[in-house]
């Protein structure tokens, strides 16, 4: 029994999701890039918050930002309410991920964040959700449907969030003038580090 047809269908659904989110890009994206660049210029940082699958995508976005010279950290909404808010400083940018915009654990964090002078950027499908309404900026990422046959398991939506996060990180990289040689500072090991740091000796 072959599942190639099913696999191709998943690819098609997720590709359509990425195209849908691409069409939702607007001036808010440019504003998000400008805010992040300004934040980093002031030696502050980006905090990425999410729960569940969105939290997993948030870890990847934070890692991509950090590895390309943009200081970022993961802020767990649950841990933040039990002491981890100590990582938040005035001047930071918080990137909050929730497809529904109604994730309870994330919403409980908002009043605490409002006590700081931070900018809150939401990545959600629903700008008029609770998260969207309480954010300073919204990056919309609504997809036509999930690749899950029951339209329940986060699949297309998390893929779209990941690509949107990559677009944000790469735009910030370019805006900050990050160069290929700068990778050597952040990748001293592994294949990237070896390629950038090794030198061929003349024979």
**How many domain modules?**
1
- Share of β-strand residues: 5-15%
Largest sheet: 5 strands, parallel
CATH evolutionary superfamily: Glucose-6-phosphate isomerase like protein, domain 1
Helix and strand sequence: HHEHEHEHEHEHHH
Can you give a write-up of this model?
The chain is of the alpha/beta class and 203 residues long. It has one domain: Rossmann fold (3-Layer(aba) Sandwich). Helix content is 49%, strand content 11%. The protein has nine helices and five strands; from the N terminus they run ααβαβαβαβαβααα. A five-stranded parallel beta sheet has the order 2-1-3-4-5. α3 links the parallel β1 and β2. α1 packs across α7. The longest helix has 20 residues. The model has no long low-confidence stretch (mean pLDDT 92).
Features:
203 residues, five-stranded parallel beta sheet, 9 helices, alpha/beta, Rossmann fold, 49% helix, 5 strands
List the helices and strands and how they pair.
Elements lengths: L3 H19 L4 H15 L4 E5 L1 H16 L4 E3 L2 H4 L12 E5 L6 H10 L5 E6 L5 H4 L3 E4 L15 H20 L7 H4 L3 H8 L6
Parallel strand pairs: 1-2, 1-3, 3-4, 4-5
